[in-house]
Every structure is written in C-alpha cells, then in structure tokens.
C-alpha cells in the first residue's frame, strides 16, 4: 500500500513538473515580422494574406514560444494565438478564431503566420501584440511592456463592428476621391495602399459588403 502511494506521488510530481516546463513564459518568448507589414482584413477572413503584406509573396509574422528556462515549447496548436492593437484606442473587432499559425510550433517553439486574419477595424500606428494561450509576449529586455509588431491593418469594416455595412460605406464616402494630403483623406479607407481613396477601394467595399462574424 505504501509503495503504491509513493508511486502515485512520483507520477503526480513528474506530471506537475512537465506541465511547468511547458508553461508559456511571456518574457522568454519572442515575436517579430519579416518587414513592416500592411494587411487588409475582413470579418469573413477572405481579404489579403499576411504573406503579401509588403508587396511580395514571402512575408510573415514569426513567434518563438518558450518556457521559463528559455526552452522552446513544441506542439502548440495552430489556434492558440491572439493578436490585437497595442494602442487600445485602435483595438480591432476580431472573430472567434481570428488567426491561425502555419503549423504547430517546432522543437524550438517557433512557428509563423502568413495566412489571413478575420476581423475588422483599423490600426495605423503602434502595431500589434501577440498572445499565446492567453499570455501576451513582453519585451525581452525589460519584461514590462508588450512586444508590438510593426503592422498596419485596414478593413472594409472601417468602424470595427465585425460587419461591413452601411455605416462603413458612410465613413468611406467621407474620404472618397481624396488622396494623401487632402483634407478628409482617411488612410483607413485606402485598402490597396496607393494613397488615394478611389474606385478601386470602393470595389473592395463592394466585394466584402455585408461580410460579418459575431
């Protein structure tokens, strides 16, 4: 009986230790981008790919998820991540599963994001933070502020309600036929990043009109 209790205790100890070793440490983990990304998103998750965010076809966000010992955590699922604006005043409206990694984390705890994002709103400055399993990655040097990735986000869901509707068309109308430098020009309405809110941007509005997630 005593031996059985010792064995049970030993198994519980090993189990608890393995859990601790695999716990995400926000100061040891890291994230970044291959370039200054600019991505157009939609609540339906059917707009621009992150991999096209700098005008090419090979760009991505990367993360390295590590435990308190600085060891990479392998096998973290594709869907265990969250991203949003570092500036709370620009917070996006994101769908239930807004972004998925390209793969499980490898033995170094590394994976990338090059697909689409499902949500709406606009982030022009301040970038985006990354969270894994509910924990926001903090600046490695200070471990006091979030790592803010260099990303600009625009969406036909301009007002960030998770639905592209008439109110977004109203916002777009105020900037229509205006370009960078003009009074009333709003870069949140410039989906193709040509510094001009024109017919091509209106076409994008039409393609995604009434797209939503709740």
Task: List its salient traits.
alpha+beta, elongated, 12 strands, 3 helices, 214 residues, disordered N terminus, Immunoglobulin-like
Question: Any overview of this molecule?
Answer:
The chain has about 210 residues and is α+β, with helices and mostly antiparallel strands. It has a domain at about 25-155: Immunoglobulin-like (Sandwich), CATH 2.60.40. It contains 3 helices and 12 strands, in the order αββββββββββαββα. It has helices at about 1-20, 165-175, 200-210, and strands spanning about 30-35, 35-40, 60-65, 80-85, 95, 110-115, 120, 130, 135, 150-155, 180, 195. The N and C termini lie far apart (about 55 Å). Mean pLDDT is about 90; it is low at about 1-20.
Question: How would the blueprint of this fold be written?
Answer:
Elements: H1 2-21, E1 30-33, E2 37-40, E3 61-64, E4 81-85, E5 93-94, E6 110-113, E7 119-120, E8 128-132, E9 135-136, E10 151-154, H2 166-175, E11 178-179, E12 196-197, H3 199-208
Parallel strand pairs: 2-10
Antiparallel strand pairs: 1-3, 3-6, 4-8, 5-7, 8-9, 11-12
- CATH fold-level name of the domain at 23-157: Immunoglobulin-like
Quickly name the level 1 CATH class of the domain at 23-157: Mainly Beta
Helix count equals 3
* Class based on secondary structure composition and strand pairing: alpha+beta
Between the first and last Cα atoms, what is the distance in angstroms? 55 Å
Shape: elongated
Strand content: 15-25%
**Helix share, percent:** 10-25%
Please give the order of strands in the largest beta sheet.
1-3-6
- The whole-number mean of residue pLDDT values reads 91
Number of DSSP E strands: 12
Biggest sheet layout: 3 strands, antiparallel
Unreliable parts:
1-21
Assembly of the depicted chains: single chain
Radius of gyration: 21 Å
CATH architecture group name of the domain at 23-157: Sandwich
Q: From N to C, what is the helix and strand string?
A: HEEEEEEEEEEHEEH
